[in-house]
Amino acid sequence: MSKPAKKVYKRRPALKAALEAARKAGLEVKTATIEHGKIMLAFTDGTTVSTNNENEWSRRLKDLGYGKN
Questions:
Q1: Which of 44, 52, 46 is nearest to 17 (CA)?
Q2: Which CATH architecture has domain 15-63?
Q3: Nearest to 10 by CA among 40, 34, 41, 36
């Protein structure tokens, strides 16, 4: 008998990765929320960023004009 296929789990974004990307961009996070697989960060300057892919954080922050990237 062959083994059944492994169940594939959808990876959720890591809050730690989002906070580290914000810190690297020089931003101070006011609040961070996780809702339905999305992370939303609100910064002390009033802007917010939301994404469900941790690899997009650098790009999103760069689009807002933050960071050294």
A1: 52
A2: Beta Barrel (2.40)
A3: 36
pLDDT cut 70: percent of the chain above it: 75
Return the residue matching tokens 């008998």: 1
The DSSP line for 18-67 is HHHHHHHTTPPEEEEEEETTEEEEEETTS-EEEES-GGGHHHHHHHTT-S
- Tokens matching residue 60: 């999103």
pTM for this model (two decimals) = 0.60
CA-nearest of 47, 52, 21, 25 to 37 is: 52
β-sheet bridge partners, residue 19: none
Asked whether the predicted pLDDT for residue 68 surpasses 60, the reply is no
Distance, in Å, from the CA atom of 54 to the CA atom of 33, rounded to the nearest integer, reads 14
